[in-house]
Design brief:
Chain lengths: 332, 287
């Protein structure tokens, strides 16, 4: 590696290392290492260029817009410095929306991880037909958001939904599931429905847990729960950490409230019940219902920074807890 | 609850049998719960409008309205939207699979100064919230006149996807070094080495990547909703937004039938490609 770097920095192709071989096989061209370096950048350039143009540029553009009053229509938009950020700080709608997004993440992420892990343990038991159960339990995770949204809208419909059918069958009153205090629970349930995703990933982790560990625990007389808690969970902790991080990021960005809302001309934006008016929905409303690109860009950047902080905090707080199995002896 | 070794044979066997029965019951109930929402969607799609308004819920349709599926298909240009979805998803999945394989090869088999940093950024960018970048991207595409064209998907496809790059990197990194040496002996450049030797080896990842990217695009609602006008849009957008009567009320049963027809192809694709799909998921999850 260091030799590679030196020769590439010096830019002298046919020095000691490469001269003999390169000289005989080809005409006097760049050395193997330089060709390798060039090839690396040739191969990775689609991603580098794409990342610069389709991720960095839009983010930078949004950052710039966040300091302006740009709305896409009026010609005399201008620079307002931190004006949008100041407005955002004092806007209770924003804070409420952020609180709802946080609550949604706090409910949906742990619940779906517990559900996914539970399913994984269940279908990891040696029973006949477990392959079929795995497939069936995973299927909902393949259903696209639009399909899931429509399915849950019908399931929790006030009149024709199965949920109220069950409630009234047992003599309870029907509930307006998709309306105000309850809509948030339906939203959480759409996430739980896709717990098969976490099941599959945890399952791969479970199968990597060395068998001897379980046997040793059994010989020591550990209960099933104890084994699960002291062996399985620690060994799965990197997977669970990864799921927590991606789960939080996904939950903050979800547009499911739009898909669960009654149909409207704004794609559901104006009919979303208060309890599902999350931060991302707030951003969409400012962006598209109100066309306040400048202000909405400030909202986006605040969310972006908050996600970075949350991810950092998750990693920091779990650094002592997460167990990375690096023992070379402990192969499968 | 404790160790089984001391117990006499028959009660132990009995207990295993009971355990198994409990396990199966739990499995069946849980699986039923997970399939319930989809089952209810199918049932809703088979009901008559009057039944959906009936006071005690009709669990099963009194008459199965199979024609709802044909009606849902005819009410909108279903085939046209499906074709749009198919074109966009195939276009994106093909391009992004090839570009990600290309980039993944670079990260797996080549070195250069700065590689470590770049790979760190690649992995980190998997965690970037895509919805956040999508909105300003939309404004930029609008400025460039690319709204209502398929160019955004071409560009996204060409620029590879970090997740798929990672899958390919893991695969290519595991191939033996002799493959490279064989290529060098044959006088291939790195591009030739990739096309002629490494790519043909990677069929499992290629197909997994294609299926994953295809399902992403088929399932995507927000990008086509923002970037495409109504009649160039995808099935996801059409199913969500177009089943409305002229009075503005949703046509629930036909929408349910349509969403079944929208979801089932993707379920079938998954069932056929299951193995690679799941393997891909697990690799990425474990990092």
């Amino acid at each position: 590696m260091t030799v590679d770097q030196v020769s590439s920095v010096a830019g002298r192709p046919s020095s000691a290392a490469g001269a003999g071989r390169a000289g005989s096989a080809e005409r006097t061209g760049p050395s193997m290492t330089v060709r390798r370096h060039r090839a690396f950048y040739m191969f990775t350039s689609p991603w580098i260029v794409g990342f610069a143009l389709l991720t960095i540029t839009p983010m930078a553009y949004a950052l710039w817009l966040s300091f302006t009053t740009y709305d896409g229509i009026s010609p005399n938009w201008h620079y307002v410095g931190l004006g949008n950020y100041r407005e955002l700080m004092g806007d209770s709608t924003t804070w409420d929306a952020l609180g709802r997004a946080g609550l949604f993440a706090l409910l949906s992420v742990p619940l779906s991880i517990v559900a996914g892990l539970g399913l994984a343990v269940l279908v990891n038991r040696p029973v006949r037909g477990r392959g079929l159960f795995r497939t069936l339990l995973y299927l909902p995770a393949v259903v696209p958001p639009v399909g899931a949204g429509i399915a849950f809208k019908n399931l929790f419909d006030q009149n024709s939904g199965a949920a109220n059918g069950v409630l009234t069958f047992f003599g309870f009153d029907a509930i307006g599931w998709l309306a105000d205090p309850y809509a948030r629970y339906v939203l959480v349930m759409t996430v739980l429905w896709a717990a098969g995703n976490i099941m599959i990933i945890s399952l791969a982790g479970l199968q990597d847990v060395p068998r001897e560990l379980h046997e040793a625990a059994r010989i020591d007389g550990a209960s099933a729960w104890r084994t699960f808690r002291s062996i399985t969970v620690p060994l799965l902790s990197p997977v669970l950490l990864f799921q927590t991080v991606t789960g939080v990021i996904a939950s903050v960005q979800t547009i499911m409230p739009m898909l669960l809302a009654p149909l409207s001309t704004t794609g559901g934006l104006t009919t979303i019940p208060q309890s599902n008016y999350t931060y991302m929905i707030h951003v969409f409303s400012e962006y598209f219902a109100l066309g306040r690109y400048g202000y909405a860009s400030a909202l986006l950047w605040v969310l972006f920074v908050l996600i970075l902080i949350a991810t950092g905090l998750i990693f920091r707080f779990t650094s002592g807890v997460v167990f990375y199995n690096v023992d070379p002896e402990a192969k499968k | 609850m404790t160790a089984t070794s001391v117990n006499p044979k028959s009660p132990a066997r009995m207990r295993i049998r009971v355990n198994r029965l409990v396990l199966y019951t739990v499995l069946v109930v849980v699986t039923g719960l997970f399939l319930g929402p989809f089952g209810w969607l199918v049932l809703t799609g088979l009901k008559a409008p009057a039944e959906l308004a009936a006071a005690p819920v009709h669990w099963l349709p009194t008459h199965f309205q199979w024609h709802n599926f044909a009606d849902a298909y005819r009410l909108i240009d279903f085939l046209g939207y499906a074709r749009n979805s198919l074109i966009i998803a195939t276009l994106y999945a093909t391009l992004v699979t090839l570009s990600s394989a290309w980039v993944g090869f670079g990260f797996a088999r080549l070195t250069a100064p700065g590689k470590k940093t770049l790979f760190g950024i690649l992995i980190g960018s998997m965690m970037l919230p895509q919805m956040i970048t999508l909105l300003p991207t939309y404004l930029i595409f609008a400025k460039l006149g690319m709204v209502d064209t398929y160019w955004p998907w071409v560009l996204w496809g060409l620029s590879s996807a970090p997740y798929l790059v990672f899958l390919f990197r893991q695969f290519f990194a595991g191939l033996p070094r002799e493959l490279e040496e064989a290529a060098i002996v044959d006088g291939c450049g790195y591009a030739g080495m990739f096309w002629r030797i490494f790519l043909p080896q990677s069929w499992p990842v290629l197909s997994a990547s294609f299926v994953i990217a295809f399902t992403w695009t088929w399932g995507d609602y927000i990008a086509p909703q923002l970037l495409l006008s109504t009649d160039r849009s995808t099935l996801a957008v059409a199913v969500m937004t177009t089943y409305v009567s002229s009075a503005g009320t949703p046509i629930t049963n036909l929408q349910a039938a349509a969403s079944v027809m929208y979801v089932v192809p993707i379920l079938l694709v998954f069932l056929v490609a299951q193995r690679g799909f799941v393997a891909g998921l697990s690799t990425s999850g474990l990092k």
